[in-house]
Design brief:
Hydrolyzes 3-hydroxyisobutyryl-CoA (HIBYL-CoA), a saline catabolite. Has high activity toward isobutyryl-CoA. Could be an isobutyryl-CoA dehydrogenase that functions in valine catabolism. Also hydrolyzes 3-hydroxypropanoyl-CoA. The protein is built from 17 helices and 10 strands. It has 358 residues and is of the alpha/beta class. Helix 6 packs antiparallel against helix 14, helix 12 packs antiparallel against helix 13 and helix 14 packs antiparallel against helix 15.
Length: 358
């Protein structure tokens, strides 16, 4: 997928309605527009720094409008050989918003800290993704009546085994080296080495992708932190593959009940709190996305976004989680068996002339 295709999505796929609703309810100030994102030309690279640390570097529409034209300029600049994107403050790479960014030139995302929602879209589709011991990855959208957008229907079912289905339905948080083990990050580097890594990348002379990969590989090989530390991959991966291999949410729930382990019981509790509609939408999204191209997935997700904006659960989820914060959403329908195939089909139907175009 080329840059032109990607950026065409900025006005359509990301659903600015959703971004505006969330940002409004989070009361995220827009008055410091000039400093929300830092765009610098350093060494051989263009460097994007998401600069809203008080808000976990969540994306605003203003930030998108600044990043887009600068990326286009760097794309055409023969002296710019790679793009580096990072978050300020040390706590989060990017915890929200709705944007997918990619680039024809090598693209390095330093996902140090919280990476959710739009932060996933800004990083996971790029060629190089660097995690640290502070990385925290999650796709928690089923808890607010939505689904894992920003291309989630493409990359999640392509993770090993049924891990992506598990992450999508439960919103489970992967931490540290597990973000690399899962394939979400391509490299793992100790956070204290990130500055040195960035400086070495910036100092490269007319680098090709292989040169950039070589630097990242050397830092990855040097990292010994948390090498043996894994919660998911050592203890639960077999359960995940077994329980989440079903084609219906109801069967996944039954599989977890039959397993009966503390881990399975905990996932049952989590799933029971999610929007029933979102759970069914998400499972179908991933099942269909597993055999679609990225463009086909984005078309599908655009349809889903429009339907969710017109429905009940997304607005109720935002209210319960982000506004009133009572954590007690009243989903409609309230039960899985009330979400009919007809209901589900309506979310996936073509929008005709209003469909996403590439």
């Amino acid at each position: 997928m080329g840059q032109q295709d990607v950026w065409r999505l900025l006005s359509r796929f990301n659903s600015l309605k959703r971004a505006n609703v969330i940002l409004q309810h989070l009361r995220m100030s827009m008055h410091t527009e000039a400093s929300e994102v830092l765009l610098e030309r350093r060494g051989c690279a263009g460097v994007i720094t998401l600069n809203r640390p008080k808000f976990l570097n969540a994306l605003s529409l203003n930030m998108i409008r600044q990043i887009y034209p600068q990326l286009k300029k760097w794309e055409q600049d023969p002296e710019t050989f790679l793009i580096i994107i990072k978050g300020a403050g040390g706590k989060a790479f990017c915890a929200g918003g709705d944007i997918k960014a990619s680039c024809q030139k090598p693209y390095v995302a330093l996902i140090d800290g919280i990476t959710m929602g739009g932060g996933v879209g800004l990083s996971v589709h790029g060629r190089f993704r660097v995690a640290t011991e502070r990385s925290l990855f999650a796709m928690p959208e089923t808890g607010i009546g939505l689904f894992p957008d920003v291309g989630g229907g493409y990359f999640l079912p392509r993770l090993q085994g049924k891990l992506g289905y598990f992450l999508a339905l439960t919103g489970f948080r992967l931490k540290g080296r597990d973000v690399h083990r899962a394939g979400i990050a391509t490299h793992f580097v100790d956070s204290e080495k990130l500055h040195k890594l960035e400086e070495e990348l910036l100092a490269l002379k007319s680098p090709a992708a292989e040169d950039i990969a070589g630097v990242l590989e050397s830092y990855h090989a040097e990292s010994k932190m948390d090498q043996d530390k894994s919660v998911i991959f050592e203890e639960h991966v077999d359960k995940i593959n077994r329980c989440f291999s079903a084609n219906t949410v109801e069967q996944i729930i039954e599989n977890l009940r039959q397993d009966g382990s503390p881990f399975a019981i905990e996932q049952l509790k989590v799933i029971s709190k999610m929007s029933p509609t979102s759970l069914k939408i998400t499972l179908r999204q991933l099942l269909e996305g597993s055999s679609k191209t990225l463009q086909e997935v984005l078309t599908m997700e655009y349809r889903l976004t429009q339907a969710c904006m017109e429905g009940h659960d997304f607005h109720e989820g935002v209210r319960a989680v982000l506004v009133d914060k009572d954590q007690s959403p009243k989903w409609k329908p309230a039960n899985l068996n009330e979400v009919t195939d007809e209901d589900l089909n309506s979310y996936f139907k073509s929008l005709g002339s209003s469909d996403l175009k590439f």
